[in-house]
Amino acid sequence: MNLLLDTHVLLWWLDDPAVLSGTARAAIADGGNPVFVSAAAVWEITIKKARGKLEAPDDLEEILAEERFQGLPITIPHALEIAQLPHIHEDPFDRIQVAQARLENLTLVTRDKLIKKYDISILEA
After folding, report:
1. CATH 3.40.50.1010 fits 3-124, yes or no
2. Which is it for strands 107-110 and 35-38: parallel, antiparallel or unpaired?
3. Segments making up each domain of the chain, as ranges
4. Mean pLDDT for each consecutive 10-residue tract of the chain (125 residues)?
5. pTM exceeds 0.90
């Protein structure tokens, strides 16, 4: 299973994995499952950290590498795919991650109720 971590899931994994469902923890920890982190998630974390809205590690890129998480860049096809999505979610970071999951055939690990309304593969966080 190819996983894409929603921003909150990434933060929970790094801070307190016990917050995640057992199924999500096992899937993320399973070395056979490639785990991706969108550039959008890192962008969102960086913005919120700079505004004092959350705490996150300064060495996030190193930590992602240590965790064996692969970066997923935002491409033009990802951006264009947003136009094909129903207007369920207004958050641009979530919409781009949905588009990425859809185009890259990834299972999005999330607890976001709005994201779950999209026709993509979801793993309950």
Report:
1. yes
2. unpaired
3. 3-124
4. 98 96 98 98 97 93 97 98 96 97 98 97 98
5. yes
